[in-house]
Amino acid sequence: MKFAFCLFKYFPSGGLQRGFLQLAQTCAARGHQIDVYTGSWEGERPENLNISIVPHKGLTNHRRYQSMADRLEKLFASRSYNVIAGFNKMPGLDIYFASDTCFAANVRKRSVLYRMSGRCRTLMRQEESVFHKNSRTHIITISNNEKQRYMEYYKTPEHRFHPVPPGIARDRLAGSDSLKIRENLRQEFGITPDQHLILMVGSDYKRKGVDRTIKAVSALPSDLKEKTRLFVLGKGKPGPMIRLSRQKKVASLVTFLGERSDVTRFLAGADMLLHPARQENTGTVLIEAMAAGLPVLATEICGYGFHIKKAEAGELVPDPFIQENLDQKLIHMLRSDKRKKWKDNAKAYVRTTDVYSRHKKAADIIETAALG
């Protein structure tokens, strides 16, 4: 069968992008033709995918995205596909893979002026085209919290939602060589055995809460602060965060490492994962950290935060977010005698819970829609 997969942009470190690629390759491995339409592509191009860069124009992101969506709508009118699947919200989709949070719910917290802006109106139209109660688009959902928000704001019929479990790669599991990997990484970066290495992984530093983490590190008591290092991995603009770390006098403790292909090494070498995100539909990295045996401190709004609570593998900062709560929980976790228990609980939970089959089950849903 022929499937069209659409996304506004691809870069290797994005969570949405990694989810897209794993699902596209799962479908390709089943013998389907996968034509990918995107506004830009960074990194290697898999041979089993037919990748097309869609021309688009506009001075702002929302205008470029609208331009691309308009072109795709015309293109698909003249091409025959069994299924058109999107990873960003746009008209004309048979399947939408819901990696993003509900924009309508987030907009309610913004000013009237913002809600009147061209950006807001464009993004609202794109979201409504997918979730309107009369739309024919089916939704692969990875977060029950967001599903409820979409149903609340758009009255989307429940039968159009198709839940799937998390989908981490099995190479994220701590292997028999994890201790050696840990020692090598810490030696490479000069991390001594008595130092605490905190890890952050994710693109869009502001949304992931890198500033919140820097403030929490700066609020540590001096005896903990001098033994703590923070590594930040992922795509983002480090300039504002570097300035904040200087302002908070912790610049020497914070290292920005950008996009990395060896995230597994850092999961093995770190002592905990910190993820105080402002918005996070799921947070696959939370499950990846658990698989590596890392205690996790995250915000309650993360879609996969309930796994941390269920596994007793760390702590959650309640919503609405208060910086002092994060500060205190970080101090508690670094000093707690529960650290070994959190690590053991995390690994045990991942061994006994389905956190791997997202892409297989999503591919099943797409095939069922194609047969339709």
Structure description:
With 372 residues, the chain is an alpha/beta fold. 45% of the residues lie in helices and 16% in strands. The chain contains 17 helices and 13 strands. The strands form 2 sheets. The protein has a 7-stranded parallel β-sheet, with helices on both faces. Helix 14 links the parallel strand 12 (296-299) and strand 13 (314-317). Helix 7 (178-188) packs across helix 12, helix 9 (210-218) crosses helix 15 and helix 13 (284-291) crosses helix 16. The longest helix has 17 residues, at 61-77. The model has no long low-confidence stretch (mean pLDDT 94).
Outline the fold blueprint.
Blueprint: E1 2-7, H1 15-29, E2 33-38, E3 50-53, H2 61-77, E4 83-86, E5 95-98, H3 103-107, H4 112-115, H5 118-131, E6 138-141, H6 144-154, E7 161-163, H7 178-188, E8 196-201, H8 205-208, H9 210-218, H10 222-225, E9 228-233, H11 238-247, E10 254-258, H12 263-269, E11 272-275, H13 284-291, E12 296-299, H14 305-311, E13 314-317, H15 323-335, H16 339-352, H17 358-371
Parallel strand pairs: 1-2, 1-4, 2-3, 4-5, 5-6, 6-7, 8-9, 8-11, 9-10, 11-12, 12-13
Give a quick set of tags describing it.
single chain, 7-stranded parallel sheet, alpha/beta, 17 helices, 372 residues, 6-stranded parallel sheet
The structural class is alpha/beta
Q: What's the rounded overall pLDDT mean?
A: 94
Shape annotation: globular
Largest sheet composition: 7 strands, parallel
Beta content comes to: 15-25%
H/E series, N to C? Answer: EHEEHEEHHHEHEHEHHHEHEHEHEHEHHH
Radius of gyration: 21 Å
Uncertain spans? none
Strand ordering within the main sheet: 3-2-1-4-5-6-7
Helix content: 40-55%
Give the total of beta strands: 13
